[in-house]
Amino acid sequence: MENVASSGGYAFLAPQDSVPTPTTNEKEESQKRGPGLKNLLKIYRQAISCGYEKTMLDIEAKIGIIEKENNELLKKVSSLSDEITSGKEKRIRLQADFDNLGKGRRKRSLTSGVMPREKWLLCQWLEAAVPTVGKPFDPSLHEAIARKESPEYKEGIIIQEFRRGFLLGNRLIRPSMVKVSSGLGSRKASVGAEQPSTTAGMDKR
C-alpha cells in the first residue's frame, strides 16, 4: 500500500511517488502557493484508498480555500469587466458630446456669418422696392391692372399697390401691380358742361 505523508498542514506524496526534485526557486514558490489543485486531487485519491481521514479533511479544507479564492477572483474579474464596459460607454458618450459641441460651434459660426449677409440682403430688398402710391405711373416699373377716378390724385398717379415690385441696382426684378388714377373723369366733364350755360345766362342779361 502506498504511503502518504503530511507536511506543514498539507498532505504530500511519499518520496517514491513524488515528481522529480524541483529547484530551490521552485521549492520556495511552491511553499508559498502550497500544492496545486491537481496534486491535491491525486493525494486525495490516495488518502481515500489508504483510509487516511485526517489527510482527506486537510485536502477538503484546502480545496475549499482554493474555491473561495477562485470565487473572489471571479467577482473581481466581473467587477473589472463592468468597469471597463462602463468606461467604454462613458467614453462613447463623451465623444458624442464633444462631436455635438463641435457641430454646434460650426453651426453657430456659419450662422454668425450668414446672418449679417441676410440682414444686408433684407436692407437691400427694402431699399430696392419699386415706389408706387403717390408716384406717377411708369410702364417700365409698374403694371397697371385697374384705373379709378380719384378726387385726391391727378390722372396717371398710382393710388393703390396690389403687388410689390423690386429693383436690383438699376435692374427691374419684378414690376409692381398697381391701380392708377384716372383723375376726376365724368365729374370733370360735367363741370365743364355747366360752365357754358352759366356764361350764356350772363350774356342774355
Q: What's the SSE blueprint?
A:
Blueprint: E1 4-7, E2 10-13, H1 24-33, H2 37-50, H3 53-127, E3 142-148, E4 158-163, E5 166-168, E6 171-174, E7 176-181, H4 186-204
Parallel strand pairs: 3-7
Antiparallel strand pairs: 1-2, 4-7, 5-6
Written description of the protein model:
The chain has helices spanning 24-33, 37-50, 53-127, 186-204; strands at residues 4-7, 10-13, 142-148, 158-163, 166-168, 171-174, 176-181. It is an alpha+beta fold. Among the domains are: 4-72, no CATH class; 142-191, Roll (Nucleotide Exchange Factor Grpe, Chain A, domain 2). Strands 3-7-4 form a 3-stranded mixed beta sheet, with no helix packed on it. It has a two-stranded antiparallel sheet with strand order 1-2. The chain has a two-stranded antiparallel sheet with strand order 5-6. Strand 5 (166-168) and strand 6 form a beta hairpin. Helix 2 packs antiparallel against helix 3 (53-127). The longest helix is centred in the middle third of the chain and has 75 residues, at 53-127. The chain is rod-shaped, with a radius of gyration of 55 Å. It starts with a strand and ends with a helix.
Compact overview of the structure:
This protein is α+β, with helices and mostly antiparallel strands and 205 residues long. The chain is 58% helix and 17% strand.
Distance between the termini: 175 Å
Shape: rod-shaped
Topology, number of strands: 7
Q: Please give the order of strands in the largest beta sheet.
A: 3-7-4
Structural class: alpha+beta
The H-and-E topology, N to C, reads as EEHHHEEEEEH
Low-confidence sequence ranges: 1-20, 197-205
Subunit structure: Homodimer.
GO molecular function: adenyl-nucleotide exchange factor activity; protein homodimerization activity; protein-folding chaperone binding; unfolded protein binding
Keywords: Chaperone, Cytoplasm, Stress response
Pfam family, one: GrpE
